[in-house]
Amino acid sequence: MNNLAKKQKTILITGGAGFVGSHLCAKYLAEGNRVICLDNLQKSRSTANIDRFKNNDNFRFIQHDIVDPIDIKEKVDWVMNFACPVSCVDLQVDPIHTVKSNVHGVINMLDIARKDKAVFIQASSSDIYGVRESGDVLREDMLGQIDTLTARACYEEGKRIAETICMDYRRKYGVNVKVVRIFNTYGPNMYYRDGRVMSNFIIAALDNRDLNIYGDGSFTRCHMYVSDLVDGVDRMMKTSDDFFGPVNLGSTKEITVKELAETVIKMTGSKSKIVYERELTGDPRFRQPDISYAKKILGWEPRISLEEGIKETIEHYKGIEMPEKKIIVFTTTYYPDMGPAERSIMEMTKSMPDTEFYFITTKSRKNLEYFAQIENNLIFRLGSGNVLGKYLFPIRAALLANKLTKKYNFRFAWSVMASYGGLAAVFLKLLNKKINFLLTFDKSETENQGALRKRFYRPIYKLIFSQADSVYLTDEETKQKATAMQANSNFSIVQWDQDLAEKIRRNYSSLLDKQEKKLDRPL
Question: Catalytic residue positions?
Answer without folding.
Answer: 155
